Amino acid sequence: MTAIAIRLPELGTAGEPVRVSCWLVDLGDDVDVGERIVEVLVRGITFDVTAPASGRVARIEKWLNATVATGDVLGWIKPGDADASE
Q1: For residues 74 and 7, what is the distance between their CA atoms, to the nearest angstrom?
Q2: Which of 21, 40, 51, 81: CA 20 to 30 A from 72?
Q3: Helix, strand, or coil here: 83?
Q4: What strands lie across the sheet with 67-68, from one edge to the other?
Q5: Contact by Cβ (8 Å): 81, 15
Q6: SS3 18
Q7: pLDDT tens digit string along 24-49?
Q8: Is the pLDDT of residue 82 over 90?
Q9: C-alpha angle 20/2/51, rounded to 5°?
């Protein structure tokens, strides 16, 4: 199954630098759609990026302190039932 990109959404920051503050999940973790998975920082304000699909975090592209822009791929989720491994 094809992986789904975790992209930085439009935050209305008007060209301000956006930085990855922390990942709230680890590589290989199961996540549910809408779950908070990565936090980004703009001018001292944090924004949460949520999982676009349920599945397993398959790859992280942008690590701590990476500068990112709207639409950048932060990581990838391999879709599937996050509860299947329980």
Answers
A1: 6
A2: 81
A3: coil
A4: 45-50, 36-42, 18-23, 67-68
A5: no
A6: strand
A7: 999 999 999 999 999 999 988 999 99
A8: no
A9: 35
